[in-house]
Write a structure and sequence with these properties.
With 86 residues, the chain is mostly helical. It has one domain (7-82). The protein has helices at 7-20, 30-54, 59-66, 70-82.
């Protein structure tokens, strides 16, 4: 099995697919985008809860605990720090 979910890669793939093909316009359906945003918000909430419980740890430890890739965990930690959420 792979490293886990990498939200950065998921976002990049989504943008590339939309840009590459008009046939993929269904991806830009507002209902699907809302679902993606909701999922991402829940993922951010999990990271915040993890940090509240365990403190700031390195991306690798958080990745293992939350089922994310190390790159994804590091991205979320950085993003949430910039936003002042952690």
């Amino acid at each position: 099995m792979g490293e886990g979910v990498d939200p950065t890669d998921m976002c990049q793939v989504l943008v590339e697919k939309v840009a590459q093909s008009r046939q993929l316009m269904a991806i830009t359906d507002p209902e699907l985008l809302v679902l993606f945003e909701d999922w991402f918000d829940e993922l951010e909430d999990e990271v915040v809860s993890f940090v509240e419980k365990h403190g700031l740890v390195d991306g690798a430890q958080m990745a293992r605990s939350l089922g994310l890739s190390q790159r994804g965990a590091t991205f979320l930690i950085s993003k949430l720090k910039r936003e002042g959420k952690i």
